[in-house]
Amino acid sequence: MESRGDAEVAYEELNKFPLIDIQEAASRLGISVKTLYAWVHLRKVPYVKVGRLVRFDARDINTWIEKQKVPEMEY
């Protein structure tokens, strides 16, 4: 049986969860691209740098959204 290199396995794993660009992330969050760039600058949202490009893992964005929920109050 032939073993695969670490780089090949890492590439396959990355392709299972493609990164989204800033326009797609802003759309999912319901905010402007300008606002999202500001949040990236302030490190308010999780992001990935690919060279000079800013990308987002959709799973991280979904997790971040869940953490932003404000619990309802009971009266």
Note the topology:
Blueprint: H1 6-16, E1 19-20, H2 22-29, H3 33-41, E2 48-50, E3 53-57, H4 58-68
Antiparallel strand pairs: 1-3, 2-3
Helix pairs in contact: 2-3
Describe the structure.
- By secondary structure, the protein is α+β, with helices and mostly antiparallel strands.
- It has a domain at 19-68.
- Helix content is 52%, strand content 13%.
- The chain has helices spanning 6-16, 22-29, 33-41, 58-68, and strands at 19-20, 48-50, 53-57.
- The chain has a three-stranded antiparallel beta sheet with strand order 1-3-2.
- Strand 2 (48-50) and strand 3 (53-57) form a beta hairpin.
Distance N to C terminus: 64 Å
* Beta content: 5-15%
* Estimated helix fraction: 40-55%
Main beta-sheet annotation: 3 strands, antiparallel
Order of helices and strands: HEHHEEH
Please tally the β strands and state the result. 3
Mean pLDDT: 88
The oligomeric state of the chains shown is single chain
Question: What is the count of helical runs?
Answer: 4
Helix vs. strand class: alpha+beta
As a whole number of angstroms, the C-alpha radius of gyration is 16 Å
* Strand order in space, largest sheet: 1-3-2
Name the poorly predicted regions: none
Shape: extended
